[in-house]
Amino acid sequence: QVQLVESGGGLVQAGGSLRVSCAASGLTFRLIAMGWFRQAPGKEREFVARINWSGGSTYYADSVKGRFTISRDNAKNTVYLQMNGLKPEDTAVYYCNRYPPPTGSWGQGTQVTVAS
User: Fold this and answer.
1) 13 closest CA partner among 90, 103, 109, 95
2) Strands 78-83, 18-25: parallel, antiparallel or unpaired by DSSP?
3) Buried-exposed string 14-32: b where 16+ CB fall within 10 A, e elsewhere
4) Which of 17, 60, 66, 115 has a CA that sits 20 to 30 A from residue 80's CA?
């Protein structure tokens, strides 16, 4: 059974930084592309960033490009999202998942709140 456990969220002032983490189990992590997604109140879940199996290729949504960095540690079955230059519009619950994400299989997410 696949388990995805996100952590590291919190409250930060605009312009600040946070790093969120996602520990994965129940899958062959080192062979799977992973992604970060987010859902703001009253909005659909949206794509943020993805990384290929080796970490050698990444892709970002335009809204976070140049501010966020996705990375992974295959020895720890963990994917990270370093978020710099945070803006109030980045406030959301952040989720990780396989990329592309399977239907109906999500962790609990981690809340990121950016105060203006």
Assistant:
1) 90
2) antiparallel
3) eeeebebbbbbeeeebeeb
4) 115
